[in-house]
Task: structure prediction
Amino acid sequence: MIKTELLTKFFGDFKAVDQVNLEVPAGQILALLGPNGAGKTTTVRILSSILKPTRGSAKVAGFDVASQPSEVRKMVGVLTEHHGLYGRMNADEYLLFFGELYGFSKSYVMNRINPMYEQLGMINYHKKRLAEYSKGMRQKLALVRALIHEPPVLLLDEPTSAMDPESAKIVRTAIKSLKNKERTIILCTHNLSEAEELSDQIAIIQDGKIILQKSIQDVRNSLFGTPVFIAKFDQQIDRNLLDLPDGIQILKNVDQEIYFKITNPNDQNPGLIRLLSEQYNLISFTEFSKRLEDAYLGAVKPDNQDEIHD
Ligand SMILES: Nc1ncnc2c1ncn2[C@@H]1O[C@H](COP(=O)(O)OP(=O)(O)O)[C@@H](O)[C@H]1O
Ligand SMILES: [Mg+2]
Result:
């Protein structure tokens, strides 16, 4: 659905994006991570045909970003950091204006946006002038705008960066609900727990180059080894009584807890949880995990001296 090959962007003689190869299939969310100035926004702007690549190519929903910009724009909904808003309009007027650009009738746009106002908690302020919006409110509005034409590709550049925790949670839930098997989403974020919660794969970009691209599960496996889960019971369990399937190993058994090493938790956990709770009083079953933050900090090289912008 999104595929870039050796995608490169120069601003003058400064290389902001350097031979980026990315592939995101339909149905997946890719979290694009990286320090400030790494090239995330530039990549998003190229993928939405706002900027032309200097070299290399990118296809979005089958269309080439350089030679088919109007097709690309129909397929893409984009939430960027600096969206021009029209201060004197209210949200309805603003969205109707954009709806019109897509050729939609007023009733179509209103039917489409009203449920989104509700979902995003905008009911109390969507009649206010945009000049009075906080940055977080603007981001929510930008999300609604990105969704008006029900695009199969969504490019979300730091959609929750200026939000209070409650709003950020509402928006994350909305992003989750936008995920479906036909839709492809790229999410630029500095919030690593957000990336971990929402994405199927991550790519880390630094100085314009992709330095790591992996599925979330592979990140966990390769950086932290096979995932470990802790089952807690109301009594000590004799591990020898447990008849475990292949791919599940007991690491240790202390007091009322058993630590399981599980090669493929998505497939194996449901059966294991059933097995344990049929035989014993299982109090909790939780992942013993390090965080994506550890992986991120391990991959990105420290570089504060010559940071270009914040
Ligand atoms: N229009 C532009 N002209 C010149 N340099 C730019 C322009 N846009 C971005 N850059 C530079 O390209 C680099 C990547 O920027 P950007 O893609 O915004 O990074 P990120 O979104 O990862 O923080 C930065 O060094 C930035 O200063
Ligand atoms: Mg950016």
In short: The chain has a mean pLDDT of 91. The first strand starts at residue 2 and ends at 11. Residues 11, 14, 16, 34, 36-42, 308-309 surround adenosine-5'-diphosphate (ligand 1) (CB under 6 Å).
